[in-house]
Amino acid sequence: MSTTKKLTVTAVAAALGISTLAACGGESKDSSSGGSKSKTVTLVSHDSFAASPAVLKEFTQETGYTVKVLKSGDAGAALNKEILTKGSPQGDVFFGVDNTLLSRALDNDLFTPYVAKGLGQVADEAQLDKDKHRVTPVDTGDICVNYDKKYFADKKLAPPQSFDDLIKPEYKNLLVTENVATSSPGLGFLLGSVGKYGDEGWQDYWKKLKANGVKVVDGWEQAYNEEFSGSAGGKKAKADRPLVVSYASSPPAEVLFAKPQPTEAPTGVATGTCFRQTEFAGLLDGAKNEAGGKALLDFLVSKKFQEDMPLNMFVNPVVKDAKLPELFTKFGAVVDKPETVAPDKIAKNREQWVQSWSSLVLK
Q1: pLDDT score of 22
Q2: Would you call the peptide bond into 260 cis, given omega within 30 degrees of 0 as the criterion?
Q3: With a cut of 70, which residues of the chain have pLDDT below it?
């Protein structure tokens, strides 16, 4: 949700964003050491971080640390701020760097290595820094094309299911996507096409997509809530695009926030158009409360926090035995074979890909 994911509290859940999830705990004296130790641990994050207050309270009860959340814009902006303050960070833990930006964070030596307790329960495919443990995987999400079920039912037209489908004439002028240079899901969709068609084929694919009438807007909010006919916001705006680049978790969000809640999600997911994002957290180099930061990283991969995430940030847990809520299992899409691109390849080519895409699509 973020240039990262992120998931602006993904999908319709932007309304869930909480500016401060717990009050500062201030300073307290530790008589055993004779010194002053902070009982506040500061989590620096993109704007989409959210957690249930009861879960954060439980962390405080277990550890004595109170969580202060410092939100710093989207993931790209938040990461840039940490790079500028490297060695003298704004907080103790950074959450929200994903696989599209991971190499930037690691190349700038932002994190102190730490092996979080419970890491052994995290899926191997999510551990992209497994040898050095500079970051801890926290969640995954899939950027995918969503479709308006009513539109396609009314037209008696099967919705697209793959990248190849989107360039077929029957879907001309139906898709809206986000600017790759300004939007996390937009960038993820581009990377999905790179994963699908390779270095030699993705540009030709986008030429065909442009010829087929793809519309580009600045960000997810505009694409999903103003241009996409299947969303609650799009219906109010009388939107006319029945295909949008969003998330596999957007249908459950549409159900959750609808009043009354429908028995079927109004939107579906083209599961052959997906790019897998993995989000990480890390102990910031120079953290003032290193002990509290380590405790917080342990907590982020605890079953309690992992099972709290889906209905707060609309992402999937990385811990193997964490259960998804019924809303996700009933209305969400299972993406078995998402496209992926190695973080080092993204790092090497990201700027060139964005520039090439801009020249192809925006001119």
Answers
A1: 36
A2: yes
A3: 1-37
pTM reported for the whole predicted model: 0.81
Burial group, residue 36, by CB count within 10 angstroms (0-12, 13-18, 19+): exposed
Confidence (pLDDT) at 46 = 86
Question: What are the φ and ψ backbone dihedral angles of 29, each rounded to 5 degrees?
Answer: -80, 135
Residue of 159, 108, 163 whose CA lies nearest to 135: 108
Beta strands in the chain (DSSP E): 27-30, 35-38, 40-45, 66-71, 93-98, 111-112, 136-148, 175-178, 215-217, 243-247, 267-284, 316-317
* CA-to-CA separations, 183 to 76, 221, 282, in angstroms, rounded: 9, 10, 23
Interatomic CA distance for residues 270 and 147, integer angstroms: 7
CB-based contact 4:74 (threshold 8 Å): yes
Cα(25)–Cα(32) distance, integer angstroms:
19
Question: Tokens in use for 194?
Answer: 């790179």
Please provide residue 157's backbone torsions phi and psi, each rounded to the nearest 5 degrees: -120, 130
d(CA 307, CA 109): 30
CA 48 to chain centre: 8
pLDDT tens for each residue of 95-136: 999 898 898 899 999 999 999 999 999 999 999 999 999 999
Tokens of 51: 């957690």
User: The tokens of 18 are what?
Assistant: 């909480």
Give Cα 262 to chain centroid, integer Å.
26
Tokens representing 97 are 């760097």
Cβ atoms within 10 A of the Cβ of 342, count? 12
Interatomic CA distance for residues 351 and 181, integer angstroms: 9
Q: Contact 145/284 with Cβ under 8 angstroms?
A: no
Residues 6+ away with beta carbon under 8 Å from 109: 86, 285
